[in-house]
Amino acid sequence: MDPVHPYMLVDGDQEAMEFARWPGTYDDTHTGDEIYEEGDLVFINSSGKVAKAASATAATVAAMQLYLAGQSWDQPFAKQYLLDKGVPLNVIPKRNRFVFTYTGNASAGVPYTFAAGDLLAVQQGAAKEILFDATYGMLVVRSSTTNPKCILKGVFKGGVNDANVRVLVELLPEPQ
Prior knowledge:
Layout: E1 7-9, E2 18-22, E3 41-44, E4 50-52, H1 58-63, E5 67-69, H2 80-84, E6 87-91, E7 97-104, H3 116-123, E8 127-133, E9 138-142, E10 150-157, E11 166-171
Parallel strand pairs: 7-9
Antiparallel strand pairs: 1-7, 2-6, 3-4, 3-5, 5-6, 7-11, 8-9, 8-10, 10-11
């Protein structure tokens, strides 16, 4: 299977998503991995700008307050009054689940074969790390538990002995 960009599954039984605006303007100086599109997982960087969550360090991702981008990074078609109000972000409600590619302990960009132990971790609801795989250009779930950011909730597509299995995860609450 090909790796998949993380995306949220919406369940009518869950609370409505809150909408927020980050003060300031769009950052049209983004380059490379910072560039995000509507629906990507984003955060507020140290410069106070919205950027794609693209850290290859699991500890950094674990500390991020993640949002879903309400609009793309440059918004060349946005009306000025929308730009003046700030960057639109969607606050991720508790219990919302995402589909991620599970890369286990593989090196960046290397397809990982899902093993019986990985399935057991899913069945036990293990907490795992999330980090950015620069080769794939997306956030992925790793098998490490040192800096957890999500809880495994199920296998979305694939199974034991398949490569790039898609797992269902719930993001852990933000650190207080």
